[in-house]
Write a structure and sequence with these properties.
The protein is an alpha+beta fold and 240 residues long. It has one domain: Lipoprotein localisation LolA/LolB/LppX (outer membrane lipoprotein receptor (LolB), chain A), CATH 2.50.20.10. Helix content is 17%, strand content 41%. The chain has three helices and twelve strands; from the N terminus they run ααββββββαββββββ. It has a twelve-stranded mixed beta sheet with strand order 7-8-9-10-11-1-2-3-4-5-6-12, with helices on one face. Strand 8 and strand 9 form a beta hairpin. The longest helix has 16 residues. The termini are far apart.
Length: 240
């Protein structure tokens, strides 16, 4: 016969909801805080798994830096083992520059960062690393799709005290480490794809400067002398 304490613990565990309200509330509070930031920079260092023909997972390392002035200025600098890219958005146009290849392209863009990210992905197939940073705290935060959400426990990431959370939605498991205190910033993110049998992961650790002063020149692209302008072909089958 099981001790009473074990029976009570099992009953409590069985009653625990799959989607814990506290975990969802933390996600929403974090999103609201992110949307309150008007000017900031964030640097992410991480890796992603690439599945080769043999089925083996190969780790690709890289960094991404964002410089943001909400709601209509953003610069992203991406450097990985495979590519270098710069994205410069000034509220009217989005420029993509490939330093190694010496080419760039400029297209018209919507008047907000969120709308620009949607347009870039939908029209041109351009994806930005950790783009969820700009979705949390909006109607597209994905909380309605959660099938599991739970507090894992406290954790320290590079000297920052955080709480670790685990989430699940169709096809994806993800973990999030949120800074404790009055500035609930995301400090680490792990995304695992369950749609692929190899379950590749993307991991990023973030360093924030919420008091950054970003100059106007940051969002102005001046083509280098050796750069050639090209056209991005729309994924819809027509040019922009």
């Amino acid at each position: 016969m099981l001790p009473t304490t074990v029976i009570v613990a099992q009953a409590t565990a069985q009653k625990k909801p799959a989607v814990e309200p506290k975990a969802v509330e933390t996600l929403r509070s974090m999103g609201a805080y992110l949307r309150s930031l008007k000017e900031f920079s964030v640097q992410g260092e991480g890796s992603r798994d690439e599945i080769v023909k043999s089925g083996q997972k190969i780790q690709i390392n890289g960094t991404v830096s964002y410089f943001v002035r909400a709601p209509d200025r953003m610069r992203a600098e991406i450097n990985t083992d495979r590519k270098q890219r710069q994205f410069i958005y000034d509220g009217k146009t989005l420029t993509v520059y490939a330093p190694r290849m010496h080419y760039y392209a400029t297209v018209n863009a919507p008047p907000t960062i969120g709308a620009m990210l949607d347009s870039a992905q939908e029209r041109y197939g351009l994806e930005f690393p950790i783009a969820d940073l700009f979705l949390w705290g909006t109607a597209k935060d994905g909380t309605s799709k959660l099938t599991y959400a739970s507090l894992v426990g406290p954790s320290t990431i590079n000297g920052v005290e955080t709480d670790q959370y685990a989430f699940r939605q169709p096809g994806v498991d993800w973990q999030l480490w949120v800074q404790k205190g009055s500035a609930p910033l995301p400090i680490k993110l792990v995304i695992t794809s369950r749609d692929n049998a190899a379950q590749p992961q993307y991991v990023a650790t973030l360093k924030w400067d919420t008091h950054a002063k970003v100059s106007d020149e940051t969002f102005a692209f001046v083509p280098p002398k050796d750069a050639s302008k090209i056209m991005i072909v729309s994924s819809r089958g027509r040019n922009p």
